Amino acid sequence: MTAFPSVAATNKTWYSLTEAAYPIEVNGSVYTGRGLPVLVYKGNTYVPLRAMGDMLGASVAWNDRQGKVVISSGAAIAPCNNAFCDVLVTGSGGHYTVTGKGRVFEGVMQYAVEDGHDYLLEGHQQLDEGAPAWSPFSLKITIPPEQLPANGTLTLELFENSAKDGSQINVLSIPLETFQ
Q1: Which of 19, 73, 118, 155 is least enclosed by beta carbons within 10 angstroms?
Q2: pLDDT digit string (tens) for 83-107?
Q3: Which residues form the Copper amine oxidase-like N-terminal domain (predicted)?
Q4: pTM summary value
């Protein structure tokens, strides 16, 4: 590949892009470009969405009615970190069930639901076992209709409190539902 400067413009800003001088490998296959180069802007790599979706086995489509790109994959990976794993969310309209596994100090997991501005709900749950064991959990979360955002995303934060200073550690953020 050769590097060449390119310029893109939006309504207010100009961007200087260069073609990436390195290969992009996805699951053992190298992206070849074929008229759609990989670009670099300020050290960040930008790739053609549909080509990457195809290489990952994901569907990439334009939703004309909503004016957005929709990417979906049947092989969604449940979010994980050092304290929470295999987290799945079901439900909608303010009624959610969240299941997964936790590995937290003294078996006490904390959670909060926020709307992008404020916490709508905060709580904790005692798990059957504390770290280092993984223990299953199930949360029933209800947000009253008048607290649901007109636009925005409800996000669940799972975390534990540090045994040293009480601060939030091992925070795992999980979208519950997006409202438009």
Answers
A1: 118
A2: 999 899 999 999 999 999 999 999 9
A3: 26-75
A4: 0.59
User: In which band, very low, low, confident or very high, does the pLDDT at 50 lie, cut at 50, 70 and 90?
Assistant: confident
Phi and psi dihedrals of 107, rounded to 5?
Answer: 70, 15
Answer with the residue of higher pLDDT: 35 or 156: 156
**Which CATH topology does 84-179 take?**
Immunoglobulin-like (2.60.40)
In SS3 terms, 145-163 reads as HHHCCCCEEEEEEEEEECC
d(CA 158, CA 155): 10
CB 93 within 8 A of CB 100: no
Amino acid at 91: G
Which residues of the chain are in CATH 2.60.40.10 domains? Answer: 84-179
